[in-house]
């Protein structure tokens, strides 16, 4: 009998199985008991680790990083090493154009930087005409990209009278690669070096 065999496999000395109970009830009860003793959680973690081909960094990244898909913007290259960010949604693009007209001291341009790992990272520079050389380096939150922080950065630059440079991590927005902890550090260092040049 399959259920009797299953009962024998799942049986733990502390827990008794009722062989005449419904099979799903038996399984649920045993899984609950197994989870409370820790072996179920260990099994789940082992399965997740195997699913990521035993790469702990890949498993960690799958829980830690949630890049928006699809990106909220596109990148239009101007041909001189810079470009502009255009929103995918027409209403947002119209709002961005209106905002930049209302903030004449802010000039917005984008570019792609190449990181030491060879990946392309998108950067959006909100250049304030009277910033006195002060520039904030903006790292957005999880599940966001440059499009999501565009309005916050533009308004913050205008109100504080500073320039702001925002960037997308690898794997976010139109930046290439995949997000990992090490790549985040490489990304911010690449943007920082761009700022001090």
From TrEMBL:
Membrane spanning residue stretches:
none
What name has this protein been given in UniProt? Answer: Serine aminopeptidase S33 domain-containing protein
């Amino acid at each position: 009998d399959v259920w009797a065999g299953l009962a024998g496999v799942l049986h733990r000395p502390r827990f008794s199985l009722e062989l005449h109970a419904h099979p799903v009830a038996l399984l649920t009860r045993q899984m609950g008991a197994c989870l409370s003793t820790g072996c179920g959680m260990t099994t789940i973690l082992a399965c997740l680790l195997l699913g990521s081909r035993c790469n702990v960094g890949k498993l960690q990244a799958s829980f830690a990083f949630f890049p928006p898909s699809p990106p909220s913007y596109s990148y239009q290259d101007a041909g001189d090493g810079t470009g502009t960010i255009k929103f995918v949604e027409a209403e947002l693009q119209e709002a961005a154009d209106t905002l930049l007209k209302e903030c004449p001291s802010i000039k917005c341009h984008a570019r792609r930087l190449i990181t030491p790992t060879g990946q392309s990272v998108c950067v959006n520079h909100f250049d304030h005409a009277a910033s006195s050389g002060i520039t904030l380096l903006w790292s957005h939150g999880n599940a966001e990209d440059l499009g999501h922080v565009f309005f916050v950065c533009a308004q913050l630059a205008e109100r504080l009278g500073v320039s702001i440079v925002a960037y997308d991590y690898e794997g976010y927005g139109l930046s290439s690669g995949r997000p990992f902890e090490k790549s985040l550090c490489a990304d911010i260092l690449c943007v920082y070096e761009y700022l001090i040049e």
